[in-house]
Write a structure and sequence with these properties.
Layout lengths: L1 E7 L7 H13 L6 E8 L1 H12 L7 E5 L10 E9 H10 L4 H16 L6
Parallel strand pairs: 1-2, 2-4
Antiparallel strand pairs: 3-4
Length: 122
Amino acid sequence: MISVLISSGARYKVDREKLRKKVEEFLTGRGLDDVEVSIAIVGGRKMRQLNRTYRKIDAATDVLSFPLEEPRDKEGVLRLGDIVICYSKAREEAAEEEKFVDDKVSDLIEHGLRHLLGEHHD
């Protein structure tokens, strides 16, 4: 079973079901099940604060991922960690790329999932 925990403020309109489906498709496509991941949709101020605290960067970015150090629990569930999406950045990037915001958020979630699974880019 894949568990997707999504939190977002009321002003950040996202299609939670679409996002859950994206995560499920991505993980099952890699042969993973019994997985849990948390997704938070936040504003620019919160993202900037997270970047300052964890990356020493005084700016908001579109996505951050926080893997768990010991991801397997005693029941064998793989708890990947947390993905944080900056809604205002996603909205800006969606406009630039001529995409729907939910599609851009889905792209950012996939990017975060790749990081949680240990895939990194240059």
